[in-house]
Design brief:
The chain is mainly α and about 230 residues long. The termini are far apart. It folds into 2 domains: about 50 residues, no CATH class; about 180 residues, no CATH class.
Length: about 230
């Protein structure tokens, strides 16, 4: 270990010792202390933990959304002022002005946010953190939904490094794909309950396939989309 890293980590651990008035969730502190450069604050450790586990964050965020349920009167819409401009972005009712919640609730899943951005009150604080509007896990989940290709390695490990389309070994040029294309979700599934919609951006609808299989799949989808547009 370099002298710089040793001094940096010693300073980070000293800062953590002062700020950790309550224990971190099991396993999270151990994760932080294993990093080459130890995060200097509990919140930074939590953020690092969820970045390391994007699939776990996706699962948790969708489970929290299911706990909240679809807000009364909400419908998935795009293009209007204050709404997403494209169906490629995940629907987020609690980010819309008409369904916004009080501070202390996550704008992604709608559930209370507790100490350091955690999703449960492990410390008995008794109330959400009024200064927080995102769970640490939901931050990672949102990035995962919007840019799943950035997490190709995690998805490859989940598939055992096998192409989801052909069963052959994944090549270096393999690409992340939505099994059900998002245009089809917008076209024929937009009336699903909001938590069910989110699954189309998460791991249930994500796969890694070799480039040749991806090209063939995209060609089939383009033909079906063109035919559907003419029929409409």
């Amino acid at each position: 270990m370099s002298d710089f890293r040793a001094r940096r980590n010693a300073a980070a651990q000293a800062r953590l010792a002062k700020s950790l008035t309550r224990p971190l969730p099991p396993g999270v502190l151990a994760h932080g202390l294993r990093q080459p450069l130890i995060p200097p604050t509990p919140r930074a450790i939590l953020e690092s933990y969820w970045r390391r586990h994007p699939l776990r964050a996706d699962l948790l965020a969708r489970a929290l959304a299911a706990r909240s349920g679809t807000p009364p009167g909400w419908q998935w819409r795009i293009g209007d002022p204050g709404l997403p401009s494209s169906f490629r972005l995940p629907p987020a009712p609690f980010r819309e002005a008409a369904h916004a919640l009080d501070k202390g609730h996550c704008v992604v899943c709608g559930q209370p946010v507790y100490r350091w951005g955690w999703h449960a009150d492990l410390w008995g604080d008794g109330a959400p953190n009024r200064n927080a509007t995102w769970h640490a896990a939901c931050v990672t989940a949102w990035k995962f939904w919007c840019a799943p290709s950035d997490h190709a390695m995690a998805l490859k490990r989940r598939q055992g490094h096998r192409c989801a389309a052909t069963g052959k070994r994944l090549l270096k040029t393999a690409e992340v794909d939505h099994a059900v294309p998002l245009y089809e979700v917008w076209r024929s599934r937009r009336d699903l309950p909001w938590p069910d919609l989110l699954a189309h951006w998460g791991t249930p609808n994500l796969q890694v396939i070799n480039r040749a299989a991806h090209v063939e799949k995209c060609a089939r989808e383009a033909g079906a989309r063109s035919t559907g547009a003419r029929l409409e």
